[in-house]
């Protein structure tokens, strides 16, 4: 791979991501003004302030300024890490994010590890062994895909936390090891649907690779079967699997709202659910923007890894990698 071309491609993708985030920030900020009622009514959260307090609120949030100027004020604060003040928690939103974001990132990371491990292994076994094993994997993945995250959360919580007592039923724990223990069941509940999806994607990609000409040639040359599977089949299938990475992470970020609520985990998913319920708009804006930024970052990483994983892909095909 040409290093200069790779750096140019990376710079272009980063610039595209910055533009997308800018557009997303405009949409997130503008949603306050598209909703019924005035922006002040959201910020007041149903309270009836004195004229002096209302004037102070108007001045603080630049509500008398033109819309474009208000957006620029807000964007400037966001770029400095200031997302405003939570109407529900009466504290800076940036402090809430700093307290809760690490828990969500750990939960998503654990769930992603479970998805990749189980999905790739099941997909490989189904494609290579075939027959009854393939049928059993297809049945299992069908059940996994048909089980929503919140249903999986309730079932796992009832069996392994309440009845067997192997895992805590709620909370995020204290310290790394205790936190991992607390987040094990939520991570499995979050991962279950995606395990089924990734296993099927892996199986299909490997079956296509098994029928390819270069695999037939490798077998004809006497290359051991395990090397054929590892070097020619699985590696070629990884490109297809990797392209689903953005969808997997996006699903994890969305479903974490349900799972965190079910297990009472103090992450940004539960924070977003509570903020939406209480119309805590500054918090909703901040969490929404963070989720968009995480999703865009994952897509950027996927685009950069694709040419490294699959040599057939050069810079320029997927969005700009060919």
UniProtKB/TrEMBL annotation:
Residues 101-302 form the ABC transmembrane type-1 domain. It is a multi-pass membrane protein. It comes from the Bacteria. Keywords: Cell membrane, Membrane, Transmembrane, Transmembrane helix, Transport. InterPro entries: BPD_transp_1_N, MetI-like, MetI-like_sf. The keyword Cell membrane applies. It holds the Pfam family BPD_transp_1. The chain crosses the membrane at residues 14-35, 104-123, 135-160, 180-199, 237-266, 286-309. It is found in: Cell membrane. Belongs to the binding-protein-dependent transport system permease family. This is ABC transporter permease. It comes from Streptomyces hydrogenans.
